[in-house]
Every structure is written in structure tokens, then in C-alpha cells.
Design a protein that fits this description.
The complex is a heterodimer of chains A (219) and B (190). By secondary structure, chain A is α+β, with helices and mostly antiparallel strands. Helices cover 16% and strands 26% of the residues of chain A. Chain A has 2 domains: 17-64, no CATH class; 82-203, Aminomethyltransferase beta-barrel domains (Elongation Factor Tu (Ef-tu), domain 3, Beta Barrel), CATH 2.40.30. Chain A has helices spanning 50-60, 71-81, 115-122, 215-218, and strands at residues 17-22, 25-31, 42-44, 129-135, 147-149, 156-166, 171-178, 188-192, 198-203. Chain B folds into 2 domains: 23-29 and 104-182, Probable tRNA modification gtpase trme, domain 1 (Gyrase A, domain 2), CATH 3.30.1360.120; 31-101, Alpha-Beta Plaits, CATH 3.30.70.1520. Chain B has helices at 42-47, 84-90, 116-121, 167-182, 186-189; strands spanning 23-26, 31-36, 54-58, 64-71, 74-79, 98-101, 106-112, 138-143, 146-152, 160-166. In chain B, strands 1-7-10-9-8 form a 5-stranded antiparallel β-sheet. Chain B has a 5-stranded antiparallel β-sheet with strand order 3-4-5-2-6, covered by helices on one side. The relative contact order of chain B is 0.22. The chains are: A alpha+beta (219), B alpha+beta (190). The interface between A and B is medium-sized, with 17 and 16 residues.
Chain lengths: 219, 190
């Protein structure tokens, strides 16, 4: 469907953008990104050709098993990959570092808009952190917004921001915001469920529960 | 070479039939190019259409295209499908001009017939009398709650309006237009 863009992994690597023709529709923008954690492309096409490209994609991909999937499937896949949703897994006080995105902020640049605030935030060690969480009982899926409590106390130390049963891992996976002292890998947590029960959990060692090396993402 | 055939353009506008005396036609597949430039620069001189008016203009010896003075220092050029590149070539060199292709971003409908003003009067608060909006007048307003650029361009003596709006609203807008058109009573249609 695309003949004027080299789609090989070397010529068009992850997080790159190209313009080209898709299913005969010119002036399309191709983004090689992967919110779901799979090798994937986001196609921006002229609106009048949108349906044509969609139908051609499904027709040409039928023998490969291509088919549409919904937002719920997307949300599960992205959570398995540990990709956050801004506004759900973050809030107005979240900084790049507290969301695990410190590596994306290039403070070695001479100057940029917002640099003083970013530098200030980078030095903070007391901000709540977004962490991956696994419940001790893999069958328990804590409700989103369930309170995270310091074990052995009644002190609220955070909340679950995303949670789903992972069909890939056959267990629940979560993201949550916790106070900084509890944000280290392996830290034991208690989660208070909506019915009042308390279940044990631990901070996982990396945000991506599935394919942490990014092999599938990078093709 | 991948053979995918010519891409098929799809308009968001559905049905357009609203009775014998009123015609609603969908022209969303026309080329629509917005030009912004200084009012006294080479682009303005070449287009030669003042604000709030429209005219058919042959640019640089090319075919006639509809040029609408949509805002002070802003024009919309409307022409046939696939004409965007030609329109760009026909415009004069003007470093202060901005040319944006809105072919896929906007929809274009035409309402023609004696009761077309009555139809639109029920959907907007623009004065559609001949004194205020004569033939070849260009104006903007909220039609059925959607911000639209309108052009009055009568066809063979029949009152007619071109309505240009954001493509996202066009499916719904077309339904409203046709629904309102079918409610125009026969005596009003004469």
C-alpha cells in the first residue's frame, strides 16, 4: 500500500516520521510509534480519503489477520507495556521525573521554554512517583482510584491509577502513584479495595510488564 | 509499484434531496485553498476581489476560478478537484502570503431555488435581503449553530448560496439543511 517510503526498520526506525502515499492517497503522514507496545504505525491521511484508506487496509490485510480493535483492547495493551495515559496516570502535580519520564527531558540543553521549572523538578526527591504494581494475588484487580496504604498502618500513601487483567500474563497489572519513599522496586504496599478488603502488592521493577526490552515495539 | 488504484474521495454529506423547488448539492470534493496576504500586495492585486465579494478570476492565464473575499486580507479560491497545485502555481510570488489547502478540511454545499433564502433565514440570523446580501456577496455567520462562510451566487437567475463549513460538522449539517428544506411549504417554494 505504500511504495514511496522505505518501511524497513533501518530506514524508518521507531519514533520517526515520514510523509508519503498510502493506498494511493498522497500527502499522508506516517508515524512509527507504538502506544500498544506492538510494531505499529499511525497514519494521518487527508480526511476525504480516510474511509478509502481504512477499507483498503482491512482488505489488503485480511490474509494477515488484520482487523479493527477497540479502545478497551488498546488500554489493556498499553498498560501491559506500562505506557501511561496523561490525565489518568498523571495529574496536575506530576512532573516528568515523577512519571518515570526523566530520560526524555534534556537538561543539558543551553535553554528552552520551561527549563527552570524542569531543573527544579529534577532535583526534587519528595514528589509522588508513578510506579508499576503487581498484587500478591494475581487474580485481584484493584479498582482504579483504590487507595494505597502503607502496610501496617492506616496512612494513605497513594492510589491505583490504572488496573486491568492482563490476558498476556494471565494476571492483574497496575500503575499507581505512591509517595516517594515507597516508590522503590520490591517495596511492599497494601491496597484498600472498594469493599474494604486489604490486599498485598509490590512495586514492580520496571514499567513495562510485557516486552520490557522493546523487541516487539522495534520490530 | 503497489497497485492500489486511485484513492476514492468520500464526502461526509449524505442525502441531499429536499423537494422539487429546492436543490441541495454537495461540492465537498472541490479544491478549496485559503490565501492570506497583505491587502496591498501582489497577491491582493492578482486576486482583485474585495472583502465580502466573490468573482470568477482567471489567474495567470489559467482557467476561471471562484475567488471569495472571506476576510480582510483573506481569500478562498474554489475550483475543480485536483486543482490545488495549479492554483499554487498561478498565484504570484509573494513572500508575505500564506497558502493553505483546505480541500479535505472543509465541506461545500450549494442551496439553489427561490425559497433558499427563506430556508436559510430559518437557520441563521443573517439578513438575506437583496439590499444586504445581493448576488456575489460573501459573508459569514452561524447557520444551524455552525460557523459558515457563505457566498450568494445565483445560477441562471435562480437564487443560490454556497455554504462552506468545517468538514467535521458536514454530515450533521447536511441533514439539518435537507430536513429544513423538506419542511418549506409548497406555497413558499413557488
Amino acid at each position: 500500500m505504500v511504495d514511496d517510503v522505505d518501511l524497513s526498520a533501518d530506514a524508518f526506525p521507531y519514533m520517526q516520521v515520514r510523509t508519503g502515499t498510502v493506498a494511493g492517497a498522497g500527502e499522508c503522514v506516517l508515524l512509527r510509534i507504538g502506544f500498544t507496545g506492538e510494531l505499529s504505525y499511525e497514519l494521518h491521511v487527508p480526511a476525504g480519503f480516510g474511509l478509502h484508506v481504512w477499507e483498503t487496509l482491512l482488505a489488503r490485510g485480511a490474509d494477515l489477520g488484520a482487523r479493527p480493535f477497540g479502545v478497551e483492547a488498546q488500554r489493556i495493551l498499553r498498560l501491559e507495556k506500562g505506557h501511561l495515559i496523561v490525565g489518568q496516570d498523571t495529574d496536575g502535580l506530576t512532573r516528568a521525573a515523577s512519571a518515570g519520564l526523566a530520560g526524555l527531558v534534556k537538561l543539558d540543553k543551553a535553554d528552552m521554554a520551561g527549563r527552570p521549572e524542569l531543573a527544579w523538578a529534577a532535583g526534587r526527591t519528595d514528589l509522588p512517583m508513578l510506579v508499576p504494581i503487581l498484587t500478591d494475588d494475581p487474580g485481584v484487580v484493584p479498582a482504579e482510584a483504590a487507595q494505597i496504604i502503607e502496610p501496617g498502618t492506616n496512612t494513605i500513601r497513594g492510589r491505583i491509577t490504572s488496573s486491568r487483567m492482563s490476558p498476556t500474563l494471565r494476571r492483574s497489572v497496575c500503575l499507581g502513584q505512591v509517595d516517594a519513599p515507597l516508590a522503590h522496586s520490591g517495596c511492599a504496599l497494601t491496597i484498600r479495595l472498594p469493599d474494604g478488603r486489604r490486599v498485598g502488592a509490590r512495586v514492580h521493577d520496571q514499567h513495562a510488564f510485557v516486552d520490557p526490552e522493546g523487541v516487539r515495539l522495534r520490530g | 509499484m503497489v497497485d492500489t488504484g486511485a484513492p476514492v474521495f468520500r464526502s461526509p454529506v449524505g442525502r441531499t434531496d429536499c423537494g422539487p423547488a429546492l436543490s441541495v448539492t454537495d461540492h465537498t470534493d472541490t479544491a478549496k485553498v485559503v490565501v492570506r496576504a497583505a491587502g496591498d500586495g501582489p497577491t491582493a492585486q492578482a486576486l482583485a476581489v474585495p472583502f465580502a465579494r466573490e468573482r470568477r478570476v482567471a489567474l495567470a492565464g489559467g482557467p476561471e476560478r471562484l475567488v471569495v473575499g472571506t476576510r480582510p486580507g483573506e481569500w478562498m479560491i474554489i475550483s475543480g478537484w485536483g486543482q490545488v497545485a495549479s492554483i499554487r502555481r498561478e498565484l504570484p510570488e509573494d513572500p508575505a502570503a500564506t497558502v493553505v489547502d483546505l480541500t479535505h478540511g472543509r465541506a461545500l454545499l450549494r442551496v439553489t431555488g427561490t425559497p433558499s433564502a427563506r430556508l436559510l433565514a430559518g437557520l441563521c440570523n443573517v439578513d438575506l435581503s437583496d439590499d444586504m446580501t445581493p448576488d456575489l456577496a460573501a459573508f459569514s455567520g452561524s447557520v444551524a449553530g455552525v460557523m459558515c462562510d457563505l457566498v450568494r451566487e445565483d445560477v441562471h437567475g435562480a437564487r443560490s448560496y454556497l455554504i462552506c463549513l468545517d468538514r467535521s460538522y458536514a454530515g450533521w449539517f447536511g441533514e439539518v439543511l435537507v430536513d429544513a428544506g423538506t419542511r418549506v411549504r409548497p406555497e413558499q417554494q413557488r
